[in-house]
Q: What sequence folds into this?
């Protein structure tokens, strides 16, 4: 039997030494959760640290990511080569795999980036969904693993954490376990400053199994972990812990969270825990216990490889994990009449049911306007075959689940809601961009085109706010053809997320050609002028239709006008300057986008003009609003005459 | 006794007729909650519709704002002049007070803008906090009212709704009551698609009183409302309702939410409810019942005016509601050594304790770095005298509470957290901008200056994302002087919110003069060149110190260099073009901001340069990161030489 207490102390001292070496860090979690983590790894976790990318491994998420030294200590002690002692000595230094908060590095056993409170457990929900969906498809011989999340008080106070509790209970994700570090301390002081809730009762209300244990009692923890594995419900193991356990001065104190550690702390902790070893030295017997404990995972990994060798589903299993794109890209029926781009998007999504069976649609109460459900059955507590997850009105959770699914592998997540609600989902979307995960965020109701629901529901600054975000591609396609193109580019992009902003109101069909995906260049001349260019109209989304109409009138007046469609700034930004200039021309420019002008100075010169929104919207029908805010063909024509005259 | 059932039917038919007249709308809520609302107004609510701005009125929040016709019907029937029958006939039309979702118009009885799910109940929490804080200050003779929120399933699924439940229980806001429309239908279909939670148990876990009633049983509702008023705990009245009650075709159905209504629906509802009256006709007897019911509120209002007349606290009560600024503005000690602007901000906030006693600080687990608590005691369940609310790790709720407090009146809300968490709070901040509420959002940890906590915690695109937002002022002050100036401008601004982005790391003291608030112009020449300007450095925040240092080196090289500090784009944007040009000059420009370049083309020409962040940050100390990302004095100098040479 391994000496789990010593295994736990090894975590403690690695954390202490690394934090002292770095000069700063958060000791509260690794010291407080050492027994919990050691027991999990010793007797329950299924991982093979020599093969950190093994698809059927258990997933471990450190949602309380500030306690990152807990994770690094676990990875080091369990034998993950990338987390060497040398790496731990670079904790919190530039370029270290041991960053201040865990940054996704799956080859090093770091499953996902965590640190912003709540994101981790919400990602864990996505991982647990992914496992169940894949198990339904490929069977338990190939897919049968669990998700364990270390969780702090902050994660549970966050709204997204509460959304997670609710949806996990609803979906009965029984292989997901939260290990709650109930240390009763937050950064601001005692948790009692801000919460009086009966947290176990809150989980029980959402149909979880709740087990309350002393978080330093190894036998109790072990029994709780066994119970979590045997109960069909998701489990909360509420671990009553002492923050910074082991440092006499800080145990159970607010300073236990991250107060600077002194030489004296090190001396006193070594004395208190009878640890005579120098800094960064772990006795071989303890390393051996850790190594032996990992044998269970190594065996499981080998058995899995053997099972897979002749498994009839091995080939599709691999294919789903590589997530190849359909070739050729499914062709779409061209609508003859103006069609909302959300509807065209729904058509694409439908076609992908056959061409990319590993797509998984997450949806925040928005089935009707995007049609995604037409061919997709629901993923539910009793049927894991569905490729459509009703996430409820929980946008923030949904975005993070999409990250967790992408990080898990095997599935292509597609998260759907209203664009106005992207503000709720934004922090999770940023995590997708930061982690460079291939998530597709699809939004409907992209502008004042929403109509009478009014300014709360009308995005104005959303496009700009995401164009400002590193590694996020923002698409606002003009019609059905560009919508299909945007889907294709977004799914091809494996090193970051994409956002599709789609219209509720009908979009004129401005493109007929489909031989080349012209959206790839970000912007292109949608309609050439009849003669040497006197004016360029630049439009995105439904405003392309207005531009085409204005072009016809201006050409009739003898003003040769080009229309440039610009579905994606970020792609256009990557074009050489000469190509940009060729497309945008040197003639006066008018940009038309029913959104904030913020950022448009990137493509407009002082002499150019912008037609869009400088205020919030209003409550009226879309037609009335476009007229009211002056986003009209007449206004374009009028402005064009002015510019051409003064040019 | 009033005929409450008929009063309820009057709501139903006004809603039906208005929605049919508009051609679209959401009938589910007004038809489903008609008895609940009528009973509340008939027997419990304390308002005087003839004096909608009476400070001691009960506050009513329609958190399920899509059901706006419920609110408009209530306001009309209770005698609010601004909501005439003619106004109701313009429901959902441009300029109507009866917008698609309620838009704040307090003279018309619309307390707050609602519609984005969860925002309403979170604002209601702020209102309930405001009432208790003001009551502690002025006594129950002047302040003693309740807050009632109509709540839908969506509001409770949202994370911010869950945050509200938790904090309300913790603070024991006993005068806050949620009236939950438990109709078991969302836009996407049955609530059972996405939730299995025992919602009453969830509220009980958070120390609420929960009363479950048939939402169409007037006696049961009445008893529940009485119980809510007498119990010291906050109350959830869980009203089991039938969505779209009264329309045989839609009752209890998904289409009850907002399916288009037909002539036949109108005929059938009139038959079913024995309502022979034509559209928009309410019998006088019913109007009379409504009018009589309002007598209670009118009496209360008159009694309150009488009590106030000779009340010793009448003058400060009025003063708090007018929220005058301190004059002269408190002077601040000038730090000699570089000082974090969060610390300077804490100094200002401390001084305001005396000068603006009606300030109320809301804080999401961030006491330490902003020092706000130094002189402020906590507002708790047992002590309402505190001016510091521990909101816990619940940023989204906190932002909306600030809106609710501002809308309530009498207090100046100041919401504090880390800038990276503004993504969590953003939707509520947008509501403040949309409602033009004077909320001050204070953020610390404004950039990679955060250091080793890494990219999750380092804002990059946040400044741009808020600069893109209409009616939001974004301040990034350079030092202690600009920090005080930003506070002053933000507090003076009564028609919208402001955001302060403050540094964790020390900021050089670049200003000594304090006679004039130079930040008012948004940007100004912080340091003049020694001769005719050859270069302009434009900086915000802590980068002003780098610019000054670079200026000294460049001047020594014979390059006359101006340094422009630009603490607030939005204010600079309002300057005449000539003033802008005079400040920015015609020489080459280099802008320096440790953030995304997005939007900077507004102030930079193609020949100019930007030094900042084009990617996410990393985990290392602030000094190392500034060096790593090339935001250094040397880099400014190098770039300056290039630009001046090619100029």
A:
């Amino acid at each position: 039997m391994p000496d789990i207490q010593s295994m736990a102390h090894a975590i403690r001292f690695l954390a202490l030494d690394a934090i002292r070496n770095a000069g700063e860090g958060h000791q509260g979690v690794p010291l407080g959760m050492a027994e919990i983590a050691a027991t999990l790894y010793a007797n329950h976790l299924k991982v093979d640290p020599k093969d950190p990318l093994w698809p059927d491994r258990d997933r471990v998420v450190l949602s309380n990511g500030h306690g990152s030294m807990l994770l690094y200590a676990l990875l080091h002690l369990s034998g993950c080569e990338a987390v060497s002692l040398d790496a731990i000595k670079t904790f919190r230094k530039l370029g270290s795999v041991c960053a201040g908060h865990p940054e996704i590095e799956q080859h090093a056993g770091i499953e996902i980036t965590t640190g912003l409170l709540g994101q981790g457990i919400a990602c864990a929900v996505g991982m647990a969904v992914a496992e169940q969906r894949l198990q339904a498809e490929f069977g338990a011989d190939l897919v049968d693993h669990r998700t364990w999340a270390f969780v702090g008080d902050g994660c549970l106070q966050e709204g997204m954490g509460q959304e997670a509790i609710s949806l996990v209970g609803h979906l009965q994700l029984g292989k997901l376990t939260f290990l709650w570090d109930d240390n009763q301390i937050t950064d601001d002081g005692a948790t009692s400053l801000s919460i009086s809730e009966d947290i176990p009762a809150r989980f029980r209300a959402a149909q979880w199994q709740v087990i309350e244990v002393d978080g330093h009692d190894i036998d109790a923890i072990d029994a709780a972990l066994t119970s979590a594995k045997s109960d069909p419900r998701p489990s909360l193991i509420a671990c009553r812990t002492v923050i910074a356990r082991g440092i006499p001065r800080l145990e159970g104190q607010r300073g236990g969270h991250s107060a600077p550690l002194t030489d004296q702390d090190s001396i006193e902790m070594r004395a208190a825990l009878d640890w005579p070893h120098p800094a960064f030295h772990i006795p071989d017997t303890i390393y051996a216990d850790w190594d032996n404990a990992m044998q269970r995972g190594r065996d499981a990994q080998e058995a899995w490889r053997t099972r897979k060798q002749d498994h009839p589903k091995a080939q599709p299993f691999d294919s789903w994990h590589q997530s190849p794109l359909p070739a050729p890209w499914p062709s779409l029926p061209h609508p003859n009449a103006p069609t909302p781009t959300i509807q065209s998007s729904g058509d694409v999504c439908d076609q992908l049911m056959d061409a990319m069976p590993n797509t998984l649609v997450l949806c925040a109460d928005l089935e009707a306007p995007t049609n995604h459900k037409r061919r997709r059955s629901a993923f539910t507590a009793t049927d894991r075959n569905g490729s459509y997850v009703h996430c409820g009105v929980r946008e923030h959770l949904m975005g993070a689940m999409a990250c967790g699914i992408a990080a898990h592998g095997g599935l292509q997540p597609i998260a759907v809601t209203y664009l106005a609600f992207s503000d709720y989902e934004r922090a999770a979307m940023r995590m997708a961009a930061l982690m460079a995960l291939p998530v597709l965020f699809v939004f409907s109701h992209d502008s004042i085109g929403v109509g009478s629901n009014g300014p709360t529901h009308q995005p104005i600054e959303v496009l700009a706010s995401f164009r400002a975000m590193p590694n996020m591609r923002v698409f606002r396609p003009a019609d059905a053809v560009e919508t299909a193109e945007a889907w294709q580019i977004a799914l091809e992009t494996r090193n970051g997320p994409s956002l599709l902003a789609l219209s509720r109101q009908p979009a004129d069909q401005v493109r007929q050609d489909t031989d080349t995906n012209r959206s790839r260049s970000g912007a292109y001349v949608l309609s050439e002028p009849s003669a040497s260019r006197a004016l360029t109209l630049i439009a995105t989304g439904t405003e392309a239709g207005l531009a085409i109409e204005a072009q016809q009138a201006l050409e009739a007046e003898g003003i040769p006008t080009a229309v440039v469609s610009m579905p994606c700034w970020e792609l256009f930004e990557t074009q050489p300057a000469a190509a940009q200039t060729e497309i945008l021309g040197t003639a006066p420019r008018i940009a038309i986008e029913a959104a904030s002008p913020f950022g448009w100075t990137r493509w407009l010169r002082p002499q150019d003009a912008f037609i869009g929104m400088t205020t919030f919207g209003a409550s009226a029908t879309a037609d009335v609003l476009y007229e009211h805010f002056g986003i009209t063909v007449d206004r374009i024509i009028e402005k064009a005459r002015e510019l051409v005259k003064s040019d």
